[in-house]
Amino acid sequence: MYVPRTLEGFFAASAEHFPVLLLTGAKQVGKTTLLRHLSGEKRTFVTLDDPLVLELAKDDPALFFQRYTPPLLIDEIQYAPELLPYIKMAVDKDRRPGAFWLTGSQYFHLMRNISESLAGRAGIVQMLGLSRLESAGRAADSRPFVPLPELVLERAGAEAPLSLKELYRLIWRGSFPAVALHEAVDRDLFYSSYVQTYLQRDVRDLAKVGDEMAFLRFLRTAAARTAQLLNIAELGRDAGVSTGTAKSWLSILQASGIVYLLEPYFSNLTKRLVKTPKLYLLDTGLCAYLTEWSSPETLEAGAMSGAVLETWAVGELLKGWWHSGKRAPFYFYRDKDQKEIDLLIVQDGTAYPIEIKKTASPGSRDIRHFGVLDRLSLRAGPGALVCLVQEALPLTDSVYAVPAGAI
Q1: Which residue, 126, 148, 175, sits at the end of a domain?
Q2: Is the peptide bond before 71 cis (omega within 30 degrees of 0)?
Q3: Which of 25, 236, 296, 309 has CB atoms 3.0–4.6 Å from 127's, for a disulfide?
Q4: Could you tell me whether strands 330-334 and 340-347 are parallel, antiparallel, or unpaired per DSSP bridges?
Q5: Rounded Cα distance, 252 and 206, in Å
């Protein structure tokens, strides 16, 4: 069963302008399924997960392109970067839009190769797991969220409230289509297999990991710090590896679409801001699995319940922007006085503050730090407190408490 994705419209429109399109994202988020659906019968599909096809692609790229001709969909292009110069030559001969569609699950690794081989010829599109609206079959309703009062009221009015139990079940199962769409799929078995496959293939290729147990400890340590300021030295120490190794492995997790680093907003006029990014796992199901929460109920009642709710909310907001083909202008604010705003959406010179709290009784205290925006060289826009209320409630003239299901 194919589930429509918000990204369909943007990708199809981009294919009319670029001869090469690369769709990147973590393994199992649905990249290949989306592109095969859009291709129909008009495009040849080749996967480099096939050892024989991969051998041909690496050993004889010229013969590969004699056998497989455009329009072409090549899956997991990062395994054969040798194909990229040949794609460049083919595009330079015929700049027909949409000739090559590529998927890849190592974004920064791919970007380095593509910037060298396909600069000016390739469009890059990022994809995450299913958003809540996509899982509900309402991909067309998803769009970038900005906490303007009229948009908040419209969204809150259109969405049925999520109960606490429903919300944490969504968070616990995660957003990979295989487990999010099929209740019969054993969630623990899926994530166990995912981690093993990821360890045994992608990470070995990228990092030459000699101690797989150390890397697994590192994964779990990173998951336990989701929604926290990144401290590389502590991360390495707790995982039992050097700071250099921790930095290298974190870059691989970022490159593979497993983690997201949210940068702090920095203005030259404001010297007291913390410049360390915040770390988020991009899939809450994987995060809950790695930190060993055995059920949605134990996760909701446990010490990580607030952090994993923030992680889920940031992920949902990212999906709204990225799956609409837009860069997410996301930052956070934190200064040395410990005043923090979970998320700033900075657009056209205006900063829209968003706080994320696990509460059903919001008050002005929850948004008390929004006033620090007056110090920045930005105009402060309307804000939102994303929480567990059942309907949108005004907290001030410009700030609403927003149900988690309405972002």
Answers
A1: 126
A2: yes
A3: 25
A4: antiparallel
A5: 7
Let me know whether 122 and 136 are in one domain: no
Q: What distance in Å separates the CA atoms of residue 49 and residue 65, rounded to the nearest whole number?
A: 17
- Residue 145 falls within a domain, yes or no? yes
Q: Which domain holds residue 262?
A: 132-406
**pLDDT score of 42:** 87
| Structural domains in the chain (count) | 2
Could you read off the pLDDT of 63-108 as tens digits, one per residue? Answer: 999 999 999 999 999 889 899 999 999 999 988 999 999 998 865 4
Can you spell out the DSSP letters for 83-136?
A: GHHHHHHHHHH---TTSEEEEES-HHHHHHHHHHH-TTTEEEEE--S--HHHHT
Q: Which residues contact 241 (CB under 8 A, 6 or more apart)?
A: 214, 218, 249
Domain end among 108, 126, 144: 126
pLDDT 10s digits, 167-202 = 999 999 999 999 999 999 999 999 999 998 876 667
CATH number at residue 35: 3.40.50.300
Q: What span, in angstroms and rounded, lies between the C-alpha atoms of 76 and 48?
A: 6
Q: State the DSSP string of 318-329.
A: HHHHHTTT----
Residues 360 and 211 in one domain: yes
On whether both 79 and 117 belong to a single domain, the answer is: yes
Structure tokens that stand for 389 in this block: 């209320």
The reply to whether 120 and 162 lie within a common domain is no
**115 and 136, same domain (yes or no):** no
Collect all residues with Cβ–Cβ distance below 8 Å to 392 and sequence separation of at least 6: 152, 153, 156, 157, 400, 401, 402, 403, 406
Same domain, 399 and 358: yes
* DSSP string of 353-387, one letter each residue: EEEE-S-SS--GGGGGGGGGGGGSSSEE--EEEEE
How does residue 271 score in pLDDT terms, banded at 50, 70 and 90? Answer: low
The structure tokens listed for 155 are: 């969204």
Q: What percent of the chain has pLDDT over 70?
A: 92
pLDDT in the model for residue 208: 63
Looking at 39-48, 105-114, 173-182, 210-219, which range is the least confident one? 105-114
What's the pLDDT band for 207 if we cut at 50, 70, 90? Answer: low
d(CA 240, CA 273): 30
* 299 three-class SS: helix
Q: What are the structure tokens assigned to 154, written together?
A: 């419209």
Neighbours of 213 (CB within 10 A): 10
